[in-house]
């Protein structure tokens, strides 16, 4: 693309860094911003700047937050005996969208993948172990994507918790193997959580 303005070119270049945004789409966005009032554009850019500079991560569950504790962990109406273990923040958003789960969360920040150099030390597993030991957690719901790496992570965490009096379950296989949790439709995801299985049953099913 050839631009008559270096300012436009720079803006298009920045927008095209976003996932799924090509140069043509970026140009449409930039030209749309040019049509907006300056106050609206300033509000848009200001919101992005504040988000990036002021966002926090919950000290308890590692979810995104505006303070040291997220609104989910701070809510007195949540069931604190259940902790849903997920891979990423996007999975929290997906499960919350179902409006079928009222417990707490723990964001691992990824899943075990030795080939990619991701081991337990790179994940929030130690803090999960501390939560189970020190809080009144009765059930861990393993809501990880049904992939080989996800299953490996489930098995590893189950072994780490084996000495603790905790019930470990996993979401039912309403989600196809190899699928990503965040892309499941809300109804399928809600059924998978509602019909979750004890981890022992899940392991025996995988081995059969």
How would you describe what is shown here?
The protein has 208 residues and is α/β, with parallel strands linked by helices. The chain has 2 domains: 6-54, Orthogonal Bundle (Helicase, Ruva Protein, domain 3), CATH 1.10.8.420; 67-207, 3-Layer(aba) Sandwich (Dna Topoisomerase Vi A Subunit, Chain: A, domain 2). It contains 9 helices and 7 strands; from the N terminus they run H-H-H-E-E-H-E-H-E-H-E-H-E-H-E-H. It has helices at residues 6-15, 23-35, 38-54, 71-74, 89-98, 125-134, 148-160, 186-194, 199-207, and strands at residues 56-57, 64-65, 79-86, 103-107, 139-142, 167-170, 197-198. The strands form 2 sheets. A 5-stranded mixed beta sheet has the order 4-3-5-6-7. A two-stranded antiparallel ribbon has the order 1-2. A hairpin with a 6-residue loop joins strand 1 and strand 2 (64-65). Helix 1 packs across helix 2 and helix 5 (89-98) crosses helix 8 (186-194). The chain is elongated, with a radius of gyration of 21 Å.
